[in-house]
Specification:
Oligomer: single chain
Shape: elongated
Protein name: Mammalian uncoordinated 13 and C2 calcium-dependent membrane targeting domain containing protein
Radius of gyration: 54 Å
Family: Belongs to the unc-13 family.
Helix content: 40-55%
InterPro entries: C2_dom, C2_domain_sf, Munc13_1, Munc13_dom-2, UNC-13_domain
Number of strands: 18
Number of domains: 6
Strand content: 5-15%
Distance between the termini: 74 Å
Largest sheet: 4 strands, antiparallel
GO cellular component, one term: secretory vesicle
Subcellular location: Cytoplasm; Late endosome
Number of helices: 38
């Protein structure tokens, strides 16, 4: 390892690095030692150190030019509001009066102590415990207040009955209807039965009025009575403690009353409610008078209320009494009434077997209380105020308990709190409207501690849904009116500050803003608001004015906050704030469009655009030493340019472009800015020149400070310099995308300049790092063994180049297509400049790829001698030896080479290494074939099989080179064709030769028939059929047309040579010829030939026609040839029949494709069939 460190130090010394590079070299040398530690913690630590060093180098390179590129593209220096700490209860003090808080504490305990109604809930002890926690009371205080609550007089329990309607009652009158009315009361439960005072004898004498009254009482007494004294004696009927009657509904079986009654309850657990329905027949006395008389009887009994334990359901003992007027009754225990009350249809029950009843009655029953505290001042709103404070106290406790910010509380109370609140509402006789109002007022009072608008919106909607006119008292409506007015003011203030208050960086900001707008809309649209807080303008106009006012205030505040001595810097900050706010439009626009049907973006941008124009006008007329326009002109025209001023100018330009894009997107017409763009255009030219200078200086420094990049989890090799180059390219393209040159032709010129600059930067960097690689010893005379540090440096270098090459794929970022379309529309003609720009980028890409391929070639070619030995071993190993085994030395060597670089290279570069190895193997196999011509086909077949094994090896199951790349590689295609031909037998080659010519003839015929091309060499007309009986092929050579002229007189002396081919299939058949027809291009032969051949056709059997030009003094000239496949001749195979069929054969001349077959056959000098074939075609041609 020490030797490795020494070699690395020597490599660093040759790079000529300066400054801190010596420290970097030491770090490189020690890096391998650090990563070989066994401790995982130490490996992570060293990886972190390497990452920190890389970051340090990159920041140092960027700082070398005062972060020139980063300053241009960085976000403008805008003081974004931080996500302020959301208020929590831990940060708050309640600041409530201690005496009032204790009174509320007592009220909560009092409510639990005297809870009423049927409810399955927690025990009283758990409710006491919850209240103690909510009020943060210690044990002593809790016990003291508990005693105080118990000392207070218990509340009076009230039963509330709402008699709604009945249906399907039985008809008692002759007209088929009834006149129903109800009598109801609370029947006492466990009471001591008092002795009945002896009745006065004089009571036996009754007036007619008393008799009528008793008839009513007599009927009702059957239900509200208890027999007293001995069995069988009826001492009297005891009425309920308080009996009330409803009105009489005339002539109906479905009466509707909607009347409310209230009864005092002595014992909720034992008392019962009873109600009878009767048909009213007494015309002279009202029901109410009768009931009043009935209730007066209670004065004549001692402790009468104690006797009403239950309602008697049996019929009267007196069978003489009539029950014809009874319509039904209901009875239920008060302990069965739920806390929230009950509203339902109750089926009517009979009193005895003789009673005939039907139908049901709809009632609403609920319990409430009335406190009778001594010395308490009368306050009609006391229960409401207590409920509000109690709900607020529980809310504060729940938020404090959760530890979450107030804004995130969802308003859901636990079961214990809900139980206490429901009990308090019931005992205070608070309706649903009251509880909804109390909930709203409680949450509204928590606005100062940042309660969420989402919760307020839901609560507001709830009270608006439940409120109806006359449901609240005047004082209660005044409380609600005051809260709505206060909340409306709060909403206006919040909306005016919505950019700060609902900034996207804050949690739930979007949801909160949406709830704010919905609150404003719901408040204005509510019936209550319209009745008690009338307004002048509709909501649409109100919201529109708020948007405009908010935009104006925001702009004025921003101008005030960005004041600076330099007008350019002030304008830059102002535009930065405005653009930043525009980028957040959608945070607010969607909700306002949905709720208010207002285009928030257009309205706000129009306001800002107007105010910005006013600002610019005032700045141009400023009395400063240098006004805005003059300062910008100076920044654009300075020579040499001032870097800071030029950067500010370009950033102002990009800010204007961004603002203009926002205006265009929202259909806002802006002011003509041609004067400004003239200044900017001059500044852009200076910027490009300065950017090139800065970029080249950065590259030089980055290459000097280059350090490797590698982590323990990833062996991919890079160095820090490529990050700087890619960063420069990215920064410049991003900057260019945000720059807008006003003149089209000028933008095109600047685009070409930009591309030239970027290409020069990338090529310069590529040359530098390859020069550094060569300085480390990676040259053309590489040894077989490459030291690991040098190999890693190679991987890092070509990976850097590949990454930089990818960064230059900027065609889309330059918007060349859009520019070309605009160029043509402007009437400038074809955009030839576009092809030049694309060609420049392609050339740079090709240059980088060529450099990478050159270095990869140096790496792979060093093993070529060894690979050649392995190929020789493969070719000359015994045939019995499997090809895979013969290839193993070669594949093992290639696999070791690939494994050494696989993890260190980008996949693209790894494929480049594989491609280079493929090229070497292909070359060696081709060389082996060329050096060994005329061998047996088995020799080439072995090489052919070996190559397919190698193809699978390089494909590596899809992880290596793709089959498409391998199959389209020209060298691969040529090798496969060469091996395929050489491994093929002579006869198969001859057949392939003729088949290829037959295909050529068929293609020529197709082109002539489809008028794609003309008949170039003429047409031969023949007729043929096969006589199966005599096994004779009959051929008529009719003539030829358009034979090519081969004599000096422009004519020919054509004749036709006829052969059956392949020759080895028909060795006994002689060559036939027609007569010579002199001086013509359209000869007529009319000659017949017969060939005796068997009916079974061998493969590729055909007639070969050769048209020759007869020459008396010299050798005959070749005019063309044609082929007739015997399978197409009638009488053979599928052709069928023995009738002469005419064939018009297109004459062709052989093309160069067949030369490869001829060459292979020529190499087989000892093959008789090959020699005979070559001799035959030589004679023919």
């Amino acid at each position: 390892m020490n030797n490795l460190a020494a070699r690395l130090r020597a490599m660093e010394s040759r790079t000529g690095s300066v400054g801190d590079c010596s420290k970097i070299a030491n770090y490189r040398a020690s890096r391998h030692n650090l990563f070989r530690r066994r401790s995982t913690r130490r490996r992570i630590s060293n990886a972190q150190r390497l990452a920190d060093l890389e970051d340090f180098i990159n920041r140092r390179v960027q700082a070398s030019d005062n972060n020139f590129f980063e300053r241009i593209t960085q976000p403008l220096d805008v003081d974004e509001p931080a996500d302020d700490e959301l208020l929590t209860i831990r940060n708050l003090t309640l600041n409530a009066d201690q005496k009032q808080l204790e009174a509320l504490y007592v009220e909560a305990l009092y409510t639990i102590t005297h809870k009423v109604g049927k409810e399955e809930c927690e025990s009283r002890e758990s409710l006491y415990k919850y209240v103690r926690s909510a009020f943060q009371g210690d044990s002593q205080l809790h016990n003291t207040l508990m005693e105080k609550a118990k000392q207070n007089k218990p509340p009076v329990v009230l039963l509330n009955v709402l008699l709604l309607e009945a249906k399907d009652l039985i008809a008692k009158d002759i007209n088929g209807f009834s006149d129903p009315f109800t009598m109801m009361g609370v029947v006492p439960g466990k009471r001591e039965i008092a002795e009945v005072i002896e009745s006065n004898e004089d009571e036996g004498v009754k007036s007619s009025r008393n008799q009528k009254r008793d008839s009513v009482l007599h009927r009702f007494g059957g239900s509200f009575r208890r027999k007293v004294g001995k069995k069988g004696s009826d001492s009297g009927t005891i009425p309920a403690k308080l009996i009330k009657a409803s009105s009489v509904q005339r002539k109906t079986l479905n009466p509707q009353w909607n009347e409310r009654f209230q009864f005092i309850v002595d014992d909720v657990q034992t008392d019962r409610f009873h109600m009878d329905i009767w048909d009213h027949d007494d015309e002279e006395q009202s029901v109410m008078d009768a009931v009043s008389s009935l209730n007066q009887i209670t004065g004549g009994f001692k402790g009468l209320g104690r006797f009403f334990k239950e309602v008697a359901q049996s019929a009267r003992a007196d069978s003489g009494e009539s029950t014809d007027d009874f319509l039904g009754c209901i009875s239920m225990n008060l302990s069965d009434i739920p806390l929230d009350g009950i509203e339902q249809w109750f089926p009517l029950q009979p009193r005895s077997e003789k009673s005939k009843v039907s139908g049901s009655v709809k009632l609403k029953l609920w319990l409430s209380t009335r406190e009778e505290r001594l010395g308490a001042e009368e306050d009609d709103l006391l229960d409401v105020k207590e409920h509000i404070e109690l709900m607020r106290q529980f809310a504060l406790y729940e938020i404090r308990l959760s530890g979450a910010p107030v804004r995130l509380w969802d308003g859901v109370f636990p079961d214990k709190a809900n139980t206490i609140l429901r009990q308090h509402a019931v005992q205070g006789d608070l309706t649903e409207v009251h509880t909804a109002m109390c909930r709203w007022l409680a949450f509204h009072s928590m606005i100062p501690i940042d309660i969420s608008f989402s919760l307020l919106a839901k609560t507001l909607q709830n009270i608006q849904d439940k409120w109806q006119p006359m449901t609240l008292d005047k004082a209660e409506e005044d409380m609600l009116t005051a809260s709505f007015s206060s909340f409306d003011t709060y909403c206006k203030r919040s909306f005016a500050e919505h950019r700060r208050r609902f900034h996207p960086s804050k949690r739930n900001a979007a949801e909160e803003f949406a709830s704010l707008v919905r609150c404003m809309r719901a408040l204005r649209d509510s019936q209550f608001y319209q009745k008690y807080l009338p307004y002048k303008r509709p909501f649409h106009a109100h919201l529109e004015s708020l948007i405009i006012k908010s935009a104006e205030d925001f702009f004025d505040e921003t101008v005030e906050s960005v004041q600076h001595e330099d007008p350019c810097k002030e304008l830059l900050k102002l535009l930065g704030v405005i653009n930043g706010s525009c980028s957040r439009f959608q945070q607010y626009a969607n909700v306002i469009r949905e709720v208010g049907r207002i285009d928030y973006c257009q309205l706000t941008l129009s306001t800002w655009d107007r105010m910005l124009n006013e600002y610019l006008t005032s700045e141009m007329m400023s009395e400063r030493k240098t006004d805005l326009r003059s300062q910008m002109k100076i920044s654009a025209n300075q020579d040499p340019p001032n870097e800071d001023d030029l950067v500010d100018l370009i950033r102002i330009h990009m800010a204007f472009v961004e603002l203009r894009n926002y205006r265009l997107a929202n259909r806002v017409r802006g002011k003509d800015e041609s004067e400004w763009y003239g200044i900017f255009n001059r500044g852009i030219k200076n910027f490009l020149e300065l950017a090139k200078e800065k970029a080249l200086a950065r590259i030089s420094l980055s290459c000097q400070l280059d350090v490797p990049i590698c982590t323990s989890s990833n062996d991919m090799r890079h160095s820090s310099s490529h990050i700087d180059v890619c960063h420069i390219v990215e920064q410049m393209t991003v900057c260019w995308d945000r720059i807008d040159v006003s003149e089209l032709t000028l933008r095109i010129d600047y685009t070409k300049d930009l591309v030239d600059i970027l290409c020069d930067i990338v090529v310069t960097y590529t040359k530098k790092i390859f020069s550094n690689l060569e300085a480390e010893g990676f040259t053309g005379d590489l040894q077989v063994f490459v030291p690991s540090p040098l190999l890693q440096l190679l991987c890092s270098t070509i990976n850097n180049c590949e990454q930089v090459r990818r960064s230059l794929m900027i065609n889309e970022k330059l918007h060349l297509d859009d520019l070309a379309i605009a160029y043509e529309r402007a009437g400038h003609g074809a955009p030839t400049w576009k092809a030049a720009v694309e060609q420049r980028l392609e050339q740079t890409d090709a240059t980088i790829c060529a450099e990478i391929d050159r270095v990869v070639g140096l790496l792979t070619s060093r093993l070529k001698p060894q690979m050649k030995k392995h190929v020789f071993h493969l070719a000359w190993s015994p045939t019995a030896h499997p090809v895979e085994d013969s290839l193993k030395p070669l594949t093992d060597m290639i696999d070791i080479e690939l494994s050494a670089v696989h993890k260190n290279l980008l996949h693209k570069n790894f494929l480049r290494v594989m491609s280079a190895q493929v090229g070497i193997v292909v070359h060696l196999l081709k060389e082996c074939v060329d050096e060994n011509p005329g061998m047996e086909p088995a020799f080439y077949h072995r090489l052919f099989e070996a190559w397919h094994v190698l193809v699978d090896f390089f494909h590596a199951g899809g992880k290596g080179l793709s089959m498409e790349v391998l199959e389209t590689c020209p060298e691969h295609v040529a090798l496969v064709r060469t091996l395929s031909l050489n491994q093929t037998s002579t006869q198969q080659l001859i057949e392939k030769y003729y088949k290829d010519l037959l295909k050529q003839q068929a293609m020529a015929e197709h082109n002539v028939n489809n008028e794609v091309s003309e008949c170039k060499y003429g047409i031969l007309n023949v007729r043929a059929y096969y006589n199966a009986n005599s096994q004779t092929l009959v051929l008529d050579v009719i003539g030829a047309k358009q034979v090519i002229p081969l004599d000096a007189n422009g004519l020919s002396d054509p004749f036709v040579v006829i052969r059956l081919v392949p020759k080895y299939r028909y060795p006994t058949q002689v060559v036939s010829k027609t007569r010579v027809v002199s001086k013509t291009l359209n000869p007529i032969f009319d000659e017949t030939f017969e060939f005796h051949i068997p009916p079974k056709l061998p493969p590729c059997a055909m007639l070969h026609f050769t048209v020759m030009d007869h020459d008396y003094l010299r050798s005959n000239d070749f005019a063309g040839e044609a082929f007739l496949e015997l399978a197409d001749v009638p009488g053979f195979g599928v052709a069928g029949g023995n009738t002469l069929r005419q064939f018009n054969l297109i004459l062709i001349q052989p093309i160069q494709n067949n030369k490869e077959i001829i060459d292979v056959l020529t190499s087989r000098r000892e093959d008789k069939d090959a020699l005979e074939f070559l001799r035959s075609i030589t004679t023919a041609y």
